[in-house]
Design a protein that fits this description.
Number of helices: 4
Helix content: over 70%
Number of domains: 1
Distance between the termini: 62 Å
Order of helices and strands: HHHH
Largest sheet: none
C-alpha cells in the first residue's frame, strides 16, 4: 500500500475530526468575504464570523485564502481610487 502525501493526510484527519460546532471548509468559504470585509475595515469580528477565524487557524487547506482575498480587495480598491482620481 502506498503512503499518502502528508499534507493530504492532514486534511483527511482534520475533516474526520470535525466537531459538530465547528465550521467546515464549505461553510468557511460562504462567509469568507464578510470576514475579509471586517478585517479590511478594522471592525470587530461578529460572533457568527469567529468560527471562520477558528477554522482558518486550524485548516491547512484554507489558511491562505484570506490573504489572497484581502490582496484582491486591496487591488480592487486601488483601481477604484485611481479611476476616481
Amino acid at each position: 500500500m502506498s503512503e499518502r502525501d502528508p499534507k493530504l493526510q492532514t486534511v483527511i484527519d482534520m475533516a474526520l475530526s470535525l466537531l459538530p460546532h465547528e465550521m467546515g471548509c464549505d461553510n468557511c468559504f460562504d462567509y469568507l468575504a464578510a470576514y475579509a470585509d471586517h478585517m479590511t475595515n478594522g471592525t470587530t469580528i461578529p460572533e457568527h464570523l469567529r468560527m471562520v477565524r477558528e477554522h482558518l487557524a486550524r485548516c491547512v487547506s484554507c489558511e491562505e485564502e484570506p490573504t489572497f482575498l484581502l490582496e484582491a480587495m486591496k487591488a480592487q480598491g486601488e483601481e477604484h481610487n485611481n479611476a476616481e482620481g
